[in-house]
Amino acid sequence: MAEIPLTLIFLVLTVIVAVSTMVYVAIAERERKETLQRVSPDLEASRLAERLLLNEDATASSRLASWLRDRMPESFVSDTSNVHKLVHAGFDGAAAPVIFSAVRIASALLMPVLSFVAAPRDNPVWLAVSVVMGLVVGVAGPQAVLDRLAAQRQERIRRSVPDALDLLVVCVEAGVSLDAAILRVARDLSNVRPELALEFAQVVRRVNAGMPRDRALLSLSQRTGVDELRTLVASMIQTERLGTSIARVLRVNSESLRLRRRQKAEKRAAEAALKMIFPLALFLLPALLAVILGPAAITVIGQLGSLSQ
């Protein structure tokens, strides 16, 4: 048995220590942030305002995007097919499309090279399969990750809409204007629902900048891509045009959203029994048959063997 080189052991130990240190620092930083939020609840709201008022020209991502825009092909720079998906995933900056295009190019080039380096050299078939798989992962991987991030963010926003509507109803019924109520809800939800709080703050920011309220609300549904918010925005715009009670509309929408979420949960619970049939038939039933019928089969085979002798 060949001895393991000391250099390899030292490298593995170094990597383990580095990863453990990073995990410890991340956990400690998370605990520190939670402590600061409990001590000062308005801290997250101030960070939310800083993010909304931050000049994009001063951020590192904008400088990186400018550097990449000067060096990338024009076809990749002008590609706007994933702009809406990036906004749905939370990457709403002007630098996001350029950086995502650069990530796609780097992934398509690096993954086949890494697969070629890691694949065994003595087997040409496995080498070719590894390179092809690396190429497929490099080309389709960034888009799949982006779709996954967008779906997760939309699901988080969808779950937080009923709570936000309840807070809006309370604020509006207390006599607060709709813009002030949206801003208040954004501040209150900044700790627990940061995605929806940021979108509400964007609506208030655009209204204060002079954009009509209906257009600002429409941008809310377009930026999130959530059907529940699209229905809510349509109801709010129609209510504002007709002059009806906004609190009643918000309350009806909140109740309908909770009913729809309850029905969706009941549907999933009803489908669970059907989905469990195939795993039970493939994995559990053979093991039960082996445990129950195994001793009897061994006994029968032994008896048949003694009778034949």
Total of helices? 13
Q: Which series of helices and strands comes N to C? A: HHHHHHHHHHHHH
- State the separation between the terminal residues, measured CA to CA: 49 Å
Report low-confidence residues grouped into runs of 5 or more.
38-46, 49-58
Shape designation: extended
Q: What structural class do helix, strand and pairing data support?
A: mainly alpha
Helix content: over 70%
Percent strand: under 5%
| Total number of beta strands | 0
Q: Specify the CATH architecture of the domain at 155-273.
A: Up-down Bundle
Radius of gyration: 29 Å
Kindly summarize this structure in a few lines:
This protein is an all-alpha fold and 309 residues long. It has a domain at 155-273: Up-down Bundle (Receptor-associated Protein), CATH 1.20.81. It has helices at 6-39, 42-53, 60-69, 74-77, 83-88, 96-118, 124-173, 178-188, 194-208, 213-224, 227-242, 246-275, 277-308.
